[in-house]
Write a structure and sequence with these properties.
Blueprint (H helix, E strand, L loop, with lengths): L2 H18 L1 H18 L5 H15 L8
Amino acid sequence: MGIFDKAKELGDKAKDFAEGHSDKINEAAAKAGDFIDSKTDGKYADKVDKAQEFVKEKTEGSGPTAP
């Protein structure tokens, strides 16, 4: 099994996990974003919001492929 096969297998496992736990993943992303905002006084709020939206789109199975 080559390195690309292993990477694909890992990606498939991550996708399967995300599909079954999207609510927990979104909750964790929201908490992480709130923490970052609190530590940086909201300096990167726009970037944090963009990352949170990316996570939400990916766990719902739609959206762009990169932030």
